[in-house]
Design goal:
Layout lengths: L1 E6 L19 E2 L2 E2 L2 H9 L5 E6 L4 H7 L10 E6 L5 H6 L2 H4 L4 E5 L2 E3 L4 H9 L4 E7 L7 E5 L5 E6 L8 E9 L3 H6 L11 H10 L3 E5 L4 E3 L3 H24 L1
Parallel strand pairs: 1-4, 1-6, 4-5, 8-12
Antiparallel strand pairs: 2-3, 6-11, 7-13, 8-11, 9-10, 9-11
Length: about 250
Amino acid sequence: MKGVVLAGGLGKRLLPLTKITNKHLLPVYDRPMIYYPINKLVEAGIDQIMVVTGGNHAGEFERLLGNGSQFGLDNLRYAYQEGEDGIAAALALTREFVGNDKLCVILGDNIFADSIAARVRQFDKSNLGAFLFLKETQNPQRFGVAELDQDGNLLGIEEKPAHPKSSYAVTGIYMYEPSVFDLIAQLKPSARGEYEITDVSNHYIKAGRVEYEILEGWWTDAGTFESLHQAQMLTRAESMKRNSEAKKK
């Protein structure tokens, strides 16, 4: 199982903070944002990870993360994405790195409490094409939104709909089999001019080869000032809780 962290984009919604650095290098409480998804992959037992970045500040990732030894990794790989062609286009850059392995992808601005270790192990042994993580949110129109029937079956995903069919956002945590790269190669740009990861997931949904889990703990992205502030508060509260529990032992 390979791990991928997608940390490209220009972070325009966070200007002027992102004028002189990449969004994923901004601090979230006591560490850079990029640390959180890397740590989640490492905690899940994934020891081969690639970071995909872009823009004018890509070199800062290697300066910060080095070879990944601070996370217990033997080697941390990097790829560079030119432009902003969408999540699927960024993922396509990792094809050679992933090879014939399955992969777990986390968007670099997704920060969450739950462990994904158990699901990673299960997916690695399964015949599924994809596995998605959902979370109920008050503003699902900002994300891909899951359409579920009365029995909880996943019928499809709509990307940033004006009128969401549910309150369940598809978080930026995905697992795919290696055939995902063949699907990405056949994609056409959406109306937004991007290669959408939603189109990839919908293919697996139509084929009946997707399962999902609803995250129990908190989850947020950190791509707007409001969600970045929320991420700061949530990570601070969790850190204080861990420190308090450690003192009691």
